[in-house]
Amino acid sequence: MSSECAFARSSLHVQNRGKTRSFTVERSGKFGYQNKTKGKNLNLCVLAEASIPTFDKISAPKLLKEASKTKKVDPEDLYDALKVLEKEKEKQVSLEALNGQWQLCFTSGTKKVQANLNRNGGGSYFPIQAVQSFNSTDLTIRNGVYLGPVGSLYFDGHFIWREKQRMLEFIFEQISIKLGPLGPLTFNIGDKDAWDKLKGMEEGVTGGQGRISQADGSNIGSNPFFTFVYVDDEVCAARGRGGGLAFWTKIEDAPSS
């Protein structure tokens, strides 16, 4: 059964992604509706165009910056904003702009995690202080988790910057552990067995974005990498080797020493 309904300014509730969102409709129009409720004569207006927030190359970075400060932006909206930046044809990404320290704010998780959750998007705010440091002069990277007086865990290594692909491809060579006033204790990562034992630990640090593996520089993307989709002086965003999207906020202009 179908008919028409017309309305002017009114409140509208839209069920989307399992959540109810409220919008104000400010234009008159004709919309189709159909009757699908068993045993009840309920008319459901179906909008011709879904009233879901949309983003562009200007509004998407603004949303990331708001989220980095408030942690109150809907994760689904963050994921949509990151996808918009990823699809933008003209990306302004440079190694010099990445120089410094960046705190991980949000990650969508790896594609495997998304598949296990039976969803295509979304994600979550990263709950602890995880920081990526890029040194554009020495081409070094540090990736760590910092728990204040409790301690810290961080990985150090080198990277290759692939300008055309906007790809920062890296390997870790050392791991350092600091417990309270003790340390840091630093160990070299040498053989394949050592890498394998540390994979789970490192993935926890990056939110599944890095996914360390034994060094292999023979092909582009054979090592862990980030493909950056956006960077400015406040936030940067990238897709990791694990398939997830993430964004960071800049906390220091100078890289870790």
The helix-strand sequence is EEEEEHHHEHEEEEEEHEEE
What do the pLDDT scores average to?
77
Secondary structure tally: strands: 15
The helix count comes to 5
Q: Strands of the largest sheet, in order across it? A: 6-8-9-10-11-13-14-15
Shape: globular
* DSSP strand content: 35-45%
User: Regarding quaternary structure, how should these chains be classified?
Assistant: single chain
Characterize the main sheet.
8 strands, antiparallel, barrel
Class based on secondary structure composition and strand pairing: alpha+beta
Q: What ranges have pLDDT less than 50 throughout 5 or more consecutive residues?
A: 1-14, 22-51, 113-119, 210-215
Radius of gyration: 23 Å
Helix content: 10-25%
Question: Distance between termini?
Answer: 69 Å
Care to describe what's here?
By secondary structure, this protein is of the alpha+beta class. It has 5 helices and 15 strands. It has helices at residues 59-70, 75-87, 95-98, 111-116, 192-206; strands spanning 2-7, 10-16, 19-25, 29-34, 44-45, 100-107, 124-125, 129-135, 140-146, 151-162, 167-179, 182-188, 225-231, 235-240, 245-252. The strands form 3 sheets. It has an 8-stranded antiparallel β-barrel. α1 packs antiparallel against α2. The radius of gyration is 23 Å and the shape is globular. The N and C termini lie far apart (69 Å).
